[in-house]
Design brief:
Layout (H helix, E strand, L loop, with lengths): L1 E4 L6 E4 L8 E10 L8 E11 L3 E6 L6 H9 L7 E8 L2 E2 L8 E3 L11 H12 L6 H14 L20 H13 L5 E5 L7 H15 L4 E5 L5 H4 L4 E6 L2 E7 H10 L10 H10 L2 H8 L16 H13 L2 H14 L1 E2 L13 H18 L1 H21 L7 H20 L5 H14 L6 H33 L4 H28 L3 H17 L13 E2 L2 E2 H4 L1 H14 L3 E2 L9 E2 H8 L8 H45 L19 H6 L4
Parallel strand pairs: 2-13, 5-10, 5-11, 8-9, 9-10, 14-15
Antiparallel strand pairs: 1-2, 3-4, 3-6, 6-7, 11-12, 16-17
Bound molecules: adenosine-5'-triphosphate.
Length: 673
């Protein structure tokens, strides 16, 4: 280790060139929800400072709503877009902004594809994220090592499970989430309540594993709600929050001492985390009844009750001037000057684009083939409906009445069957969540995803279309030539693929399942209404519905092509017996409002064009979200900060006076997210 001391200046630079690890310092972090309408700006975090270092595991604790997740998100660069953060974050000696998805972060929600097994999930993730030059044996060792490390051997070949599939337990899911994050051996790991919902044994196992990771040179920061004494004892550092303010920050072992000095000694045999939360929540009865403690502070009323605000204020104030705060300040100053590894280099361990493409396509294909909702239920319904259509319109013939029957049958097949694609929506939402979580970085990331998504779904769309096309064609007996049968199948493939693409776009914009489903159903409904089934296209109101909706509507082109395929070259019986036969072309023009001067193959080509356009739109949406949104957001942050920092109500003191060269006023002026 090389230590540089620049005499004559305040700066002490400690180079840790022979040491891997992440030294994270945050100073005077405030997070607010701006509200310009009634002028009240809500403060979620208030001037928090602290540090995290390698070989240590830190717990962020506090009552529900105290800001644990917000602090974790602020440090990991994952704050939602409606909040503004100010303050300074220094990582390995460099003031920097962590971007969404850059650091290893285990979310509260376990986002995975439920149809895959534990081992498959880890393997696909390793193929996507580990360097292309890693040898196969090395990668296998890394995968099996992660399984062992997280104690997942027993469930390695069991499926994860989803809404229709009973899979691994909650604790195993959580351990799998952690295993996925530690695959790349990150030196900095964030976890949002990893033990929530687990039984005490599972919680202990998870916490113990995190401790082992930390003591292997990693920096681990985890929010945790109310750990048991055993779990609490595994943490090295504690950051205790209440209402977005620091109640305590320092060694976990010294927290009880601090509370005792502040007038709230913990009774023997009480779980320390319970005690802290009871104090903060002013669970006064519980506090006094079980411990016979009557804290001696201002804020105790004549009846002996102690207000929540008084206890919090006391603790905050006591901490501000405590020995732990002094030590923390000194350590923050020290760590701010430690220059360690360049964090950026940790991101460059990704597979090549072709490896990503083949892995994603394969994974998506396997997922869809096992997904009851996406494929099996849908194909069953397609077959059942095709058989129904086939029997209802069996041998439709060429009588005068058959003209209307053919129209209704064609409309049902291309309209309703494509509508059924909505059944794949849960699967699309799941896919998008995994995509956003994985964040395939690199120039090709989004493109690779779009192409793989298309390639993997194409075989299923084709099978479903061929099944529908074959049953209906042979039962209804529209025509006898093979080219007509081929057209029906291709038309269905095109229309179903378009609907799936539209659904993917909706899933990327509206990640909420129910909302997305309603919007998806509405979209298909409008497309059906303007496709010519219910009202002929020439009769549609010109503004909006005819131009442009009917022109960008896949359904209109799909149905038009299907009608041409069915009727051109046909002859139908006249209305009155003995009259001349009715030519199919004439029926199309006069009864269905369809022009016949353009070939049906052009109609199919337009459907394919719409499909390609939608895939392009999907690409731009994902790219926009990846690139432009953060940029626009940083402009918004700057402007908002300029406005709110003028308000006296916004500036409040940090949890302890900043000793970092960057003063709190400077840090407020320098948004980092
Ligand atoms: N993006 C946001 N916009 C508005 N308010 C928010 C936002 N994020 C968090 N909050 C609010 O900030 C407060 C702290 O939320 P946070 O999720 O950080 O609490 P927590 O301590 O993690 O709670 P829990 O233990 O229940 O998960 C809550 O009142 C929450 O409603």
């Amino acid at each position: 280790m090389e230590i540089e001391q620049a005499t004559g200046s305040e700066k002490v630079v400690v180079r840790v060139s022979d040491k891997r690890g992440m030294y994270l310092v945050w100073e005077d972090i405030s997070v607010v929800v701006p509200n310009f309408r009634n002028g009240h700006t809500r403060r979620l975090l208030n001037g928090l400072s602290g540090y995290a270092e390698p070989n240590r595991i830190m717990a962020i604790m506090g009552p529900s709503g105290s800001g644990k997740s917000t602090l974790l998100d602020a440090l990991a660069g994952r704050l939602s877009r409606n909040v503004i953060m100010s303050g300074s974050i220094v990582l390995n000696g460099k003031k920097r902004r962590l971007e969404y998805g850059v650091v290893a972060y285990v979310t509260q929600e376990d986002i995975m594809l439920g149809t895959l097994t534990v081992r498959e999930t880890i393997r696909y993730s390793a193929n996507l994220r580990l360097g292309g030059n890693m040898r196969k044996e090395e990668m296998n060792e890394r995968i099996e090592g992660s399984i062992r490390e997280m104690g997942l051997e027993e469930c390695a070949d069991r499926v994860i499970g989803n809404w229709h599939l009973r899979g691994i337990s909650g604790g195993e899911k959580k351990r799998l989430s952690i295993a996925l994050e530690i695959l790349t051996r990150p030196n900095l790991l964030f976890l949002d309540e990893p033990t929530t919902g687990l039984d005490s044994a599972s919680a202990y196992f998870v916490a113990q594993t995190l401790r082992n990771l930390a003591h292997d040179g990693k920096t681990v920061i985890s929010s945790i709600h109310q750990p048991s004494s055993e779990v609490f004892a595994l943490f090295d550092h504690l950051f205790l929050l209440s209402g977005g303010q620091t109640i305590y920050f320092g060694p976990a072992t010294k927290a009880l001492e601090f509370f005792a000095l502040a007038g709230f000694p913990c009774p023997t045999r009480r779980n320390p985390s319970d005690h802290f939360l009871r104090c903060i929540n002013s669970d006064f009865d519980a506090l006094t009844n079980s411990s016979s403690i009557m804290p001696s502070h201002e804020g105790i009323s004549s009846t002996g009750s102690l207000s929540t605000a008084a206890i919090k204020a006391t603790l905050i104030e006591k901490y501000r001037w405590s020995e732990q705060a002094t030590t923390a300040r000194a350590r923050i100053k020290e760590i701010s000057n430690i220059e360690g590894d360049d964090f950026e280099s940790k991101r460059k361990c990704e597979a090549k684009w072709w490896k990503q493409l083949s892995t994603l396509t394969h994974r998506s294909f396997v997922n869809m083939s096992r997904d009851v909702g996406y494929y099996w239920i849908r194909i069953s319904i397609y077959i059942a409906l095709s058989l129904s259509v086939g029997t209802i319109f069996y041998g439709v013939g060429s009588s005068y009445r058959a003209i209307f029957a053919r129209g209704a049958c064609g409309a049902f097949i291309s309209g309703f069957m494509t509508f059924m694609s909505i059944g794949g929506f849960p699967s699309f939402i799941e896919e998008m969540k995994v995509f956003y979580k994985e964040r395939l970085n690199g120039y090709y990331g989004v493109g690779v995803y779009i192409v793989s998504n298309f390639l993997s779904s194409f075989p299923f769309v084709t099978v479903m279309s061929i099944a529908t096309g074959t049953i209906t064609y042979y039962m209804v007996r529209f025509r006898t030539e093979f080219s007509h049968y081929l057209y029906i199948c291709l038309d269905l493939i095109g229309c179903i693929a378009v609907v799936e693409s539209s659904m993917m776009i909706i899933a990327s914009l509206v990640p909420n399942f129910l909302m997305g489903l309603i919007i998806g159903a509405g979209y298909i409904g409008v497309m059906m209404m303007t496709a010519g089934y219910f009202r002929q296209i020439p009769d549609l109101p010109k503004i909006f519905w005819r131009y442009p909706i009917s022109y960008i509507n896949y359904g209109a082109w799909g149905l038009q092509g299907a009608f041409k395929n069915d009727m051109i070259g046909m002859e139908f019986d006249p209305l009155e017996p003995g009259g001349p036969k009715l030519k199919g072309e004439m029926v199309l023009k006069t009864m269905l409002g369809i022009q016949v001067d353009v070939s049906k193959w052009w109609d199919l080509a337009v459907v394919i064009l719409i499909l390609l356009m939608l895939r392009l739109v999907f690409f731009f949406i994902l790219k926009f979200k990846e690139r432009v949104t953060p940029f626009l957001y940083s402009i918004y942050v700057n402007l908002t900060l300029q406005r709110i920092k003028k308000r006296p109500s916004f500036r409040k003191g940090p949890s302890f006076p900043s000793l970092h060269p960057l003063s709190s006023q400077e840090s407020l002026n320098s948004p980092i997210h």
